[in-house]
Design brief:
mainly beta
Amino acid sequence: DILYNKPVTAILPEVFKGNSTLQTLTIGSNVTDIGESAFEDCDALTAVVLPDAVEYVHARAFRGCDNLTTFTIGKGFAHHDDNFIADCPKLSTLQMSGWNKNGYRCEDNVLTHQSDYWYAYIIACAPGKTGHYTIPTYYQINKIEIFPECFGGCTGLTSITFPAGMKYAVGKGAFRGATNLRCIDMHNIKGTIIREYS
């Protein structure tokens, strides 16, 4: 938390990438920024709790952590670059520590973001999630964007339902590696735009 008599406020990119012995992680209460690939491929890591001070998690920050089972996002979370928890096959619990003032929430082990009254985003599904998932509906929202690789590596996910009455944008590789996904139900969608973006 303190280094050279100064508070640690950021974890730099790739600083722990590929560390095979890091089992537990305590992030100091002054840290606001976690760099790109900072903990990528830390295969011994089992749980992560982001303090409320953490605002920004960069691309691939926790990607590919093979034994990560629980990820808790703090109340101050405000920015991200991509699905930073993709390809963590045992991650089955994705949760918030409390109400988030920036419109982020975790429901059914999926991270979502309502940015304003009209748009919402499905950001990341816990790769260890199993069974069916229904994309949530939001009051007054008319467009939902599915982030690239949102369901990346979700091998236990079997079906997804897109609720009617919305427009959707589907990101590149949104279902990559979801090898047991058998049904994506869009049959009630009328006048909806489906497109791929990167």
